[in-house]
Amino acid sequence: MTAPALLVVRDLRVLIGGRHILHGVDLDVAPQGVTALLGRNGAGKTTTVRGVLGLVPRAGSVLLDGEETVGLPTHTLVRRGIGYAPEDRGIFADLTVAENLRLAERRGADGPAYGLVHELFPELKRRAKQLAGTLSGGQQQMVAIGRTLLNGNRLIIADEPTKGLAPKVVTEVVQVLERAAEAVPVLLVEQNLAVVRRLAAHCAVLADGRTAHQGEAAALLGDEEATRRLLGVGRGPLTSRQDLTVEADS
Amino acid sequence: MSTLVLLTMTGLGLGALYFLIASGLSLIFGLMDVLNFAHGALLSIGAYGTWWAASGNLPGAGPGGWGFALAVLFGTAVGTLAAVVLELVVVRPLYTRPREQVLATVGVGLAVPALLSGVWGSDARTFPGPEALSGTFGLLGADVPVNRLVLIAAAVVVLVALRLFLGRTRHGLVVRAGVEDRAMVTALGIDVRTAFTLVFAIGGCAAALGGALGGLYFGSVDPRQGTSLLIFAFVVVVTGGMGSVTGAAVAAVVIGLVQQFANYYTAAGLGDLAVVVLLAALLLVRPRGLTGRLA
Amino acid sequence: MSTATTPAPAPPAFATAPARRGPRLLRWWPAAVLVLLAVAPYSALPLPGLLDGPVGSPGSLQLLATCLLFGALATGYDLLLGRTGLLSFGHALYFAAGSYATNMFLLEAGLPFAVVAVLGLCSGALLALVLGSVSLRVSGIGFSMVTLAFAQAGSILVSRNPGGLTGGEEGRAAPAELLPSWLVGIDHTANLYWIALAYLVLTLAVVHRAVRSPTGRVWEGIKENERRVEVLGLKPYGFKLTAFVLAGALAAVGGLVHLLLTGGSTPQTTTSDFTLSLLVMVVLGGSGTRWGPMVGGILYTWADHRLGDLAGSGAVADLPAVLRVPLSQPLFLLGVLFVAVVHLLPGGLARLPSRLRRTREEHR
Q1: B99:C328 CB<8 A
Q2: Percent of chain A with pLDDT over 90
Q3: Nearest to C142 among B102, B117, B290 (CB)
Q4: Which residue of B has its CA nearest to A57?
Q5: Taking CB atoms and an 8 Å limit, are C144 and B115 in contact across chains?
């Protein structure tokens, strides 16, 4: 990582209901490609993302392109060029697909990039008038990712975008993220190591609300002992099956 | 038959009044989780503003014709302004403390009627109105007071306007989305606080209009009017589903009719009682009625 | 007269001040205050500005007794709001039930006073049990609204005067001839005052003990995070109902005291405004603190009366309208004060000393 990081998180702490969820997370998001945020369940991955965005009260330092963002309200921070696809997809079920996308429009130089979104997800154009709540999980994820691509963002944050999706849809989402990452750096929270292996150049691993490891993704995943120690996964049946799905496709 | 028609029209008029209060209450709760106990006070402010203007205190306004329309406009504007001030000064600073927001509106709900009775006395004041609106008209053999029709028309206009606003404008889209998931709206880069002020303004506007026209309906204004209507507006909001404007409209009609008919055909006051018990029953049967949908 | 010698509650576990500040005797200040309050009827001390006549005069004692009564009522109400986190908008109902039920048993059945007092208490507690068990099936703002609906239903019922039982808008005077003679008449105001004082001591003691019991600790857990209590395998429902019934029973006793103090039942005590004023008292004084609700209740009641007197006085009538109008409306001033406290003084007046201390230390 020679170029300075796009997003620099230092000593991020989050306290919810009097309990410390994060004790000091350090994270660098590379200015190109995908940086994966890994960790076991409950390690604080989603809280880190929400803390970065100011969706939970936080302390510490979060620099976006060198500018401090802790203290800014979420909407101001997002307007500086962040696209966010949350863990639960954050779809507005009672709004149509078109309305969900329209809501994400921000005033920018080029106007909303509906061309790109509809090219990547032709289905969203066909289903524009359908209520988002009636979409399948995969289609909802398309809406969520589509919203992040609509504006000329500087950073896309995707929290477990492949969670709960059918293998075929996982492949589709991975391809879109791969293409998006060519233009915009992506911070990807992911449990599926096959997806990480395919997309991520860099990674950070959280454990118990702290950063346990940062480095090259390939190096970590190549070290089976470290992978098991940090992520608690070996050759579990679920992981290996999804492994095959993605790799067979590539 | 004529009794039936009169009761129906009166019930609808009352329902229209309830809708004017409940629509804003419902939007505010749906978007902000704030049960606005000061909403009745906003109605009272609208009523007193109109009364004050129509009593010859505002140049150009008066009890008849266009003068009265101006008075209603004035009262509604004052109520809207009061609602915006309420949101900006009282509610907004407590953004991170939802329960305190409710408590603060309780305080305002106590203070405003007291202030009104301090200025204009605690007794009811006769409400001036144009000749044309104080008469009756014949409908299926019944002499129906015109003011019922005025209220119904106003409620329909407000309903249509609200639906257009929610369905056709970007601000309306933000409000609908905010009712579902406020945090996600901010995560899309939208300052949801603008929507907060907006729903307060809309709610205050509708309630103040209700106050202005309610003065015609009741024939008088008194400082406690708004607060006593508030409880029935709560019933409407819960029945219709929090955050749903169309739901509030349907519920308002049902509640208004039930109340009128029950009060007439059974012992006086039983209708009020029935409606209040209905609120409890609904909440118990359908606790999720509080998290309704917007339509 | 035995009420005046009710033993003081156990010395409070006063967390911060005394240890640093000096003599252990300071810990006994509640007992000292209690003694002072108990002997107040014998005092001819004038408190100009605070009270109209000397402390021991019937008028002053009546006001003081009302203050103590509401101090106690607010303390009981805070069992729900500040201790269990339940925002009830219908507490007036149980207070009114205590008053009206006692009065109706007296008037209609003509039973001895001791019996009707117990019946009044039981009626209030039973009503709280029934309505509480229903209301608590919903939580959050839904609970608030169900309680509001039930209280409103009660209020409508009372004002409709079914069968002439409640006296409608006028309320119903208690039959003086059926009450013990030492509780009737202006000469016996001191007795009523002592009863109000005893009610306050009783409420403080009950709330204090309840909060420190194992049940009280579960209440605290429910207030902090109901889900976590569920995770521990406890069912919050029963604990919340216990708090609701206990608070309802305490309110019913208060209604009984109010009946004696004012010589009748009035429909004003059934209104939602009455509950809201309790809410204001608790928040003003400091919800969830030991003395806050009591202080809030006493101050609110005193201010309400004194401001009312002030409004009727010549001094205010001569003021320009800008000052006269707000000053003539106690509820306006109290409402504004309430909003100000909610904004500027979270935790109410009870947190004021510690806040001031902290500010002083910061400036040092």
Answers
A1: no
A2: 11
A3: B290
A4: B96
A5: no
CA distances to B69, B70, B178, B208, B236 from B66, rounded to whole Å, are 5, 6, 39, 18, 32
Closest CA to B272 of C100, C93, C271, C157: C157
Report if residue B278 sits inside a domain.
Answer: no
Yes or no: say if B36 and B207 are a contact pair by the CB < 8 Å rule: no
Closest alpha carbon within chain C to B110 = C335
Q: Which tens digit of pLDDT belongs to each residue from B76-112?
A: 999 999 999 999 998 888 887 878 888 899 889 988 9
From the first residue on, what is the mean pLDDT of each consecutive set of 10 residues in chain C (364 residues)? 41 43 68 77 73 75 89 92 89 92 84 86 92 84 84 85 77 78 75 88 91 88 83 86 93 91 85 86 88 90 81 71 76 86 82 79 68
Residues of chain A with C-beta less than 8 angstroms from the C-beta of B192: 75
Distance from CA of B219 to the nearest CA of C (A): 22
Which of B90, B113, B276 lies nearest to residue C153, judging by beta carbons? B276
Q: Is the predicted pLDDT of residue A174 greater than 80, yes or no?
A: yes
Choose the closest CB to B187 out of A53, A93, A99: A53
| Structure tokens given for B63 | 């009890």
- Torsion angles phi and psi, residue C306, rounded to 5: -65, -40
Closest C-alpha among B221, B216, B219, B185 to residue B32: B185
Task: Collect the ranges in chain B with pLDDT lower than 50.
Answer: 290-295
Verify whether the Cβ–Cβ distance B102 to C152 is below 8 Å.
no
What range does the domain containing B148 cover? Answer: 18-227
Indicate yes or no: CB of B173 within 8 angstroms of CB of A104. no
pLDDT tens, A194-218? 888 888 888 888 888 888 888 888 7
Q: Which of C144, C160, C336 lies nearest to residue B111, judging by beta carbons?
A: C336
Amino acid at C14: F
Best C91, C278, C332, C341 residue to mutate vs chain B (most B CBs within 10 Å): C332
- What residues contact residue C145 under an 8 Å CB cut-off, 6+ apart? B35, B234, B238, B279, B283, C89
pLDDT score, position C68? 92
Residue A26's φ and ψ, nearest 5 degrees, are -110, 140
Q: Do B181 and A103 touch (CB under 8 A)?
A: no
ipTM associated with this complex: 0.84
Q: Residue A8: beta bridge partners?
A: A28, A63
Residue C335 Cα, gap to closest chain B Cα (Å): 5
What does the domain layout of chain C look like in residue ranges? Answer: 56-363
Would residue B121 count as lying in a domain?
yes
At residue A131, φ and ψ (nearest 5 deg) are -70, 130
Residue C146 and residue B279 in contact, taking contact as beta carbons nearer than 8 Å: yes
**Which among C149, C272, C346 has CB closest to B279?**
C149
Residue A29 belongs to domain spanning: 1-81+200-250
Asked whether residue A74 is assigned to any structural domain, the reply reads yes
Split into its structural domains, chain B has a count of: 1
Chains that touch B (3 or more CB pairs under 8 A): A, C
CATH of residue A59's domain is 3.40.50.300
Chain position carrying tokens 């993704």: A217
**Angle C189-212/C236-262 helices, nearest 10 degrees?**
170
Beta bridge partners of C62: none
> For residue C5, what pLDDT is reported?
40
Number of domains in chain A: 1
pTM of the model: 0.82
Instruction: Please state, in angstroms and rounded to a whole number, the distance separating the CA atoms of residues B91 and B85.
Output: 9
When the candidates are 1.20.58, 1.10.3470, 1.10.3680, 3.40.1130, the CATH number that belongs to C56-363 is 1.10.3470
- Which residues of chain C neighbour B238 with C-beta distances below 8 Å? 145
pLDDT (0 to 100) of residue A246:
44
Q: Do C156 and B276 touch (CB under 8 A)?
A: yes
B167 lies in a domain?
yes
From C331's Cα to the closest Cα of chain B, the distance in A is 6
Residue A156, domain member (yes or no): no
